[in-house]
Design brief:
Helix content is about 35%, strand content about 40%. It is an alpha+beta fold.
């Protein structure tokens, strides 16, 4: 079945909006912009970090920007960066898979302080925008969780 020009344009717009959310998170969290961080998530969104735990709800996720440990990293020189996401869209649901890394500044220059795999599940909102419903990160430390999640690259969103 061939897509109409309007459908193709909508898919491109959706993909760009999702990319903006994926990469915008790093800028917002490093800029300690709680409102911007929160704007990427639904009210009851979840940000689960495998070796740290889950942050549940927009307010808790926004609080990352005020966390003493996070502020110490920001003041020492840190950047939360995402690779270009692989995006699967099915109707009003989407999933973006990518790697995320945290370059940090140290005595000998910059180094990668953390490298993770990420699966970001999103839902279309009223008005057509997208928001994160659930984000799962697993540190790429040789444990099986990260590669297993990356292997689900083409798995449809289940938000």
């Amino acid at each position: 079945m061939s897509l109409t020009l309007e459908q193709r344009l909508q898919e491109l717009e959706d993909r760009e909006a999702i990319r903006q959310i994926v990469c915008g998170y790093g800028y917002a969290v490093d800029g300690c912009n709680a409102d911007a961080v929160g704007s990427f998530y639904v009210e009851d969104g979840v940000y689960a970090v495998g070796d740290i735990g889950a942050m549940e709800g927009r307010e808790r996720i926004e609080a990352i920007t005020r966390d003493a440990g996070h502020l110490k990293l920001v003041h020492a020189g840190v950047a939360h960066m995402s690779t270009p996401p692989y995006i699967v869209i099915e109707g009003d649901l989407a999933v973006a898979t990518c790697h995320t890394m945290v370059p940090m500044h140290g005595e000998d220059g910059f180094f990668i302080g953390r490298l993770s795999s990420s699966r970001i599940e999103l839902a279309r909102q009223g008005g057509g925008g997208w928001k994160i419903v659930h984000r799962q990160n697993w540190v790429q430390d040789g444990s099986p969780q990260g590669p297993a999640m990356l292997a689900r690259l083409n798995e449809a969103p289940k938000v």
